Amino acid sequence: MNDAAQIKKKKAYLWGQGAEWLCMCFLIFKGYRILARRYRCKSGEIDLVAQKGPVLCFIEVKARQTKRAALEAVSMRQKSRISRAAEWYMARNGHGKGDISCRFDVMALEPWAWPTHVKDAWQTDVRK
């Protein structure tokens, strides 16, 4: 990989890190409790895991030049991997019992704008 490609890749990585941080702050401001950031397991990765009341939210953060591009960037394959990682998270952290429900959200971020929080962006069956 040449220097220009490495610089571009590092810039994209740092922009993504900043987007996650900004979305995390935005969620805290809205009353969410952040339980995990960049949760990884063998099934996949979840950008943010947050809870508000009895709802456990698995959040995918996408930073793009436009909000539309960010919202369209979550593929079916990603949704499947995030769903499987959510099952792992719930099993490992004792969220399988009780009156907790879960949902999958997307937070889209474009330059110089507040994050757009799309609640319940997709449905899936998560085994608790």
Which descriptors would you attach to this protein?
alpha+beta, 3 helices, Trna Endonuclease, Chain: A, domain 1, single chain, globular, five-stranded mixed sheet, 39% helix, 5 strands
End-to-end Cα distance: 43 Å
**Biggest β-sheet strands, sense, barrel:** 5 strands, mixed
CATH architecture assignment name: 3-Layer(aba) Sandwich
Number of strand elements: 5
If you had to describe this structure to a student in words, what would you say it looks like?
The chain has about 130 residues and is an alpha+beta fold. The chain has one domain: Trna Endonuclease, Chain: A, domain 1. The protein contains 3 helices and 5 strands. It has helices spanning about 5-30, 65-70, 75-90; strands at about 35-40, 45-50, 55-65, 100-110, 115-120. Strands 1-2-3-4-5 form a 5-stranded mixed β-sheet. Strand 1 and strand 2 (about 45-50) form a beta hairpin. The protein is globular. The mean pLDDT is about 90.
List the helices and strands and how they pair.
Layout: H1 3-29, E1 33-41, E2 44-52, E3 55-63, H2 67-72, H3 76-92, E4 101-109, E5 116-122
Parallel strand pairs: 3-4
Antiparallel strand pairs: 1-2, 2-3, 4-5
Short description:
This protein has three helices and five strands; from the N terminus they run αβββααββ. The protein is an alpha+beta fold and 128 residues long.
